Amino acid sequence: MSEHILLLGAACLDIVGRLDAELMPGASNPARIRASYGGVARNVAENLARLGQPVNLVSVIGRDRPGDELLEYTQAAGVDVSAILRTDLYPTGFYMGVLDSRAHLRFAVDDMRVMSELTPEALQQHARLFDDASLVFVDGSLPEATLKTAVTLARKANLPVCADSASSALAQRLKPHLGKLHLVTCNAAEAAALTGQIFEASDARAALEAARALRNAGVNIVLVTLAEFGVVYAAAETSGHIPAIQTPILDPTGAGDALTAAVLFGLVNEMEIDDALRLGVSAASLTLRHSGAVLPDLSLEKLYDQLVI
Q1: Is residue 260 within 8 Å of residue 185, measured between CB atoms?
Q2: How far apart are CA 34 and CA 103, in angstroms?
Q3: Among 28, 157, 232, 268, which one is least packed by beta carbons within 10 Å?
Q4: CA of 193: how far to CAs of 103, 146, 207, 221, in Å?
């Protein structure tokens, strides 16, 4: 694991509230509220670092107190944050989600204007990081021109590019690059945005059809996460469905990022995709039980303790 994984994308502050009862519009609703650090690329980077994988994170945050604290926390988790940019133009990114009493996401808002400062020119200043990487990960929060530059730099360095669409609204940014991506992770709504095939997360067969459609578009490995219904995958020589581990859900935020991180860890350590995915399902299950986006004591031992056989 001497070569690092290079991750490009969002880093932000997360505020998530879980309602105690049914949502009452136009009123203040009692809830359990927590704050943590988030952003897809940042979450994946922290999970990987806690598994012992060297990682570099390229993102942009505000020159403000939340940015200071995010930087300090992420670095303490083991992530190389030396390439994170600071700006005075926008505040550090912010995500706010509301869960119902069963821990299902009801709605969310975010302010990620700061990501517009991660320009192609800014990324070019860190082009050397591509020379030493084993794999590049991008999320859909990258501006379109920056995403194109990232894919170009990775291809010049002969690196596989893995991507997470991050949201159904941002998924469109990946479409022009599908034929150049080694792996794509998306949920049901994001897969629908990428393929035009609309389906419910409970329909594993339809999810697998969407995964195969993305394979036909040129992606080598496609993962479609289905929340409590597990994950489907399609690759060159194998495809299938791995059910979720039945577990109490405290907070779903970051579970998909944990799955992605464990899969990336498996791939760079030359595991078969089926085995890497089982690690991923284990990581997602552990994260679902934690009130926060990343399990702070994540380890390989914990993943293997509850591995799906």
Answers
A1: yes
A2: 13
A3: 28
A4: 24, 21, 12, 18
**Domains present along the chain, CATH in parentheses:** 4-159+244-305 (3.40.1190.20)
Q: What is the pLDDT along the chain (309 residues), one digit of tens a residue?
A: 457 999 999 999 999 999 999 999 999 999 999 999 999 999 999 999 999 999 999 999 999 999 999 999 999 999 999 999 999 999 999 999 999 999 999 999 999 999 999 999 999 999 999 999 999 999 999 999 999 999 999 999 999 999 999 999 999 999 999 999 999 999 999 999 999 999 999 999 999 999 999 999 999 999 999 988 999 999 998 999 999 988 888 889 999 999 999 999 999 999 999 999 999 999 999 999 999 999 999 999 999 887 755
CA 165, chain centre distance (Å)? 8
Compute how many other C-beta atoms are within 10 angstroms of the C-beta atom of residue 165: 26
Interhelix angle 255-268/273-288, nearest 10 degrees:
150
Cα–Cα distance, 30 to 240 (Å, whole number): 41
**Could you tell me if 265 and 224 are in contact, meaning their C-beta atoms sit under 8 angstroms apart?**
no
Look at the block and give the residue holding tokens 């009692």: 30
Number of Cβ within 10 Å of residue 75's Cβ equals 15
